[in-house]
Amino acid sequence: MSAMTQDETAPHYLDNAEAAAFLKLSPRTLEKQRVRGGGPAFRKFGRRVVYALSDLQSWADQRRYNSTTQAELAARG
Fold first, then answer.
1. Residue 51: CB atoms within 10 Å
2. Given a cut of 80, is residue 6 above it in pLDDT?
3. Any idea where the domains of the chain sit in the sequence?
């Protein structure tokens, strides 16, 4: 069994601007989603807000559709 390096075991956190760039959204969109809900899970360390890369990927995967009809039905509720 090989030893894991810190890079392989440590979660990868992105700040608001980095997370927005990863999702190809504006940073303001993520800020609004934190207030209103519906956005990706985030963490707060004091006043600092960060996103785990795995949470961003999971949130994006939950929004995968095969047609625009599917997306419209999901948006309705």
1. 25
2. no
3. 10-76
CB distance 15 to 54 below 8 Å: no
Domain 10-76's class?
Answer: mainly alpha
Q: Say whether pLDDT at 4 is over 60.
A: no
Q: CA separation (Å) from 35 to 11, 28, 29, 32?
A: 24, 11, 10, 5
Confidence bin at 3 (pLDDT 50/70/90): low
Q: What is the pTM of this model?
A: 0.77
Cβ–Cβ < 8 Å for 22, 61: no
At 46, give phi and psi (nearest 5°): 70, -125
Q: Which two three-digit tokens encode residue 30?
A: 């993520």
